[in-house]
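User: Run a structure prediction on this.
Assistant: Running it now.
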Amino acid sequence: INRSDPTKTYPNPKKIGEGAAGEVFMAISEVTGRRVAIKKMTLANQNLKLLLTEIAIMKDSHHPNIVDYIDSYIEEEKLWVVMEYMD
C-alpha cells in the first residue's frame, strides 16, 4: 500500500458509482494525466483479508479483459484501490 497522500495525485475525484464494497470515483492523475477509477472501501477487520486478497489478484492479473490495478492507499480509514478506468 502506497503511503503517500492520494489526494495530491488524484485531486477532485468525482463519484460515478456505488456498490456493496464501497463507492467508485473517477479522477485524473496529476502525474500521468491518465483517467482512473478509484474504489473507496471502509476498512474493517471482517473485510481486510478479502480486500488484501483482491489487491493481490489484481496486481498479478494482466490481460486485456481484466481491469489493470494501478495502486492502493489508505486515506481517512478508507482503502483506495486505483484501477484502470473503463467507460
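The beta strands are 14-18, 23-28, 35-42, 69-75, 78-84.
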